[in-house]
From TrEMBL:
<feature type="compositionally biased region" description="Low complexity">
    <location>
        <begin position="37"/>
        <end position="50"/>
    </location>
</feature>
<dbReference type="GO" id="GO:0005794">
    <property type="term" value="C:Golgi apparatus"/>
</dbReference>
<feature type="region of interest" description="Disordered">
    <location>
        <begin position="1"/>
        <end position="120"/>
    </location>
</feature>
<dbReference type="GO" id="GO:0034237">
    <property type="term" value="F:protein kinase A regulatory subunit binding"/>
</dbReference>
<feature type="compositionally biased region" description="Basic and acidic residues">
    <location>
        <begin position="1"/>
        <end position="11"/>
    </location>
</feature>
<dbReference type="InterPro" id="IPR026534">
    <property type="entry name" value="PRRC1"/>
</dbReference>
<dbReference type="InterPro" id="IPR026533">
    <property type="entry name" value="NTPase/PRRC1"/>
</dbReference>
<feature type="compositionally biased region" description="Low complexity">
    <location>
        <begin position="57"/>
        <end position="77"/>
    </location>
</feature>
<dbReference type="InterPro" id="IPR029001">
    <property type="entry name" value="ITPase-like_fam"/>
</dbReference>
<keyword id="KW-0333">Golgi apparatus</keyword>
<feature type="compositionally biased region" description="Polar residues">
    <location>
        <begin position="78"/>
        <end position="94"/>
    </location>
</feature>
<protein>
    <recommendedName>
        <fullName>Non-canonical purine NTP phosphatase/PRRC1 domain-containing protein</fullName>
    </recommendedName>
</protein>
<comment type="similarity">
    <text>Belongs to the PRRC1 family.</text>
</comment>
<dbReference type="Pfam" id="PF01931">
    <property type="entry name" value="NTPase_I-T"/>
</dbReference>
<feature type="domain" description="Non-canonical purine NTP phosphatase/PRRC1">
    <location>
        <begin position="149"/>
        <end position="257"/>
    </location>
</feature>
């Protein structure tokens, strides 16, 4: 709004001015946005326009008041500018509206078990606070597996793999022995050792004859001339559906000197020499390198633990088993 002066509204034409002095009365100076109350007769006294003093009236008694909208760019905050006595005064800007951000729960929608059952909010909270509760929460369902070992690296690896594939699965461990050398040598010896652990459990009535069983046996083999590797044989036996599966872990290179030492420490007349060595390669490595575990030296040599190797192979084993099961028997 442009500033309005007394030149546009002479005193003789404006009833709000003193007829003698031509000065605006004190009640006549109002902002442009205000309106005077209605007259008792029902008519309106009319809104007094902002005025600027003229003549010899003191500046303080006749301030010039006008409202001018500030020019704003698109998206900026609208401001109003008032002029009093030629001095521009800005009103406080309109409070900026802050958009509310919505929580992104897209990742949660992708979290689900292989069975298609999404995790409940309680499951997520519990496993976040205590990751060790995940095996307990995911236990149950129609899948029950016994691992022929009580070693945590084997049992937990198989459990995590089957629970990932089936969603719910109960996996426990039961110690079992084989009738071959402590350090099996060759694929045939590794497979036989894994099978004998299952047979010994069943013969000893330690598991039900219908129990699904997973067995793991590590062995060494010379896959290349003068180059030795450690490999794990992982097998599954389901006597109800007559399912028998075999997979192998990745081959981990072994420095040849450790294999030669294990062979030297094995007597020539060792009764189980047909299946392997009397001393394991892990035992030789642990003695040669202080601080290295005899059962998990793989981590120091490759950066991957033996448990992770068993887990990866168990994932494949569980996937194969799920495909072999009759339809309707999976979760």
């Amino acid at each position: 709004m442009e500033e309005v002066t007394s030149e546009d509204h002479p005193a003789s034409a404006d009833p709000a001015l003193n007829s003698e002095t031509g000065k605006p009365t004190a009640d006549s100076v109002l902002p442009s946005s205000q309106e005077t109350p209605s007259s008792p007769s029902g008519g309106e006294a009319g809104a007094a326009s902002p005025l600027t003093s003229t003549g010899d009236a003191p500046q303080a008694s006749s301030p010039s008041l006008s409202s001018t909208p500030a020019t704003t760019s698109p998206g900026s905050t609208q401001k109003s500018t008032f002029t009093i006595g030629g001095t521009p005064i800005q009103q406080s800007p309109t409070p900026m509206e802050i958009p509310h951000e919505t929580a992104d729960n897209s990742d949660y929608g992708q979290m689900e078990y292989a069975s298609g059952r999404p995790p409940s909010s309680m499951d997520t909270m519990i496993t976040t606070l205590d990751p060790g509760m995940a095996p307990i929460i995911r236990s149950g369902g129609d899948i029950s597996v016994v691992v022929t070992s009580d070693k945590e690296c084997k049992v937990s690896a198989v459990r995590d793999a089957f629970q990932k594939v089936f969603g719910l699965a109960t996996v426990t461990g039961q110690a079992a022995q084989s009738n071959i050398a402590p350090q099996p040598e060759g694929y045939a010896a590794g497979l036989k050792g894994a099978e004998e652990r299952i047979e010994n459990l069943r013969r000893g009535d330690k598991i039900d004859e219908k129990q699904v069983t997973v067995s793991i046996e590590s062995f060494i083999t010379d896959l290349l001339p003068d180059k030795w590797f450690d490999v794990g044989c992982v097998i599954l036996s389901d006597p109800v559906y007559h399912i028998s599966l075999q997979v192998f872990t990745q081959a981990t290179p072994i420095p040849t000197e450790y294999v030669l030492q294990a062979q030297t420490l094995t007597p020539s007349d060792y009764s189980l020499r047909w299946s392997g060595l009397a001393v394991t390669v892990g035992e030789v490595i642990a003695k040669a390198i202080p601080g290295v575990s005899a059962t998990d030296w793989h981590l120091n040599f490759t950066g991957m633990s033996r448990r992770d190797m068993i887990y990866n192979s168990s994932l494949a084993l569980a996937g194969l088993y799920k495909e072999k099961l009759p339809k309707g028997e999976t979760l």
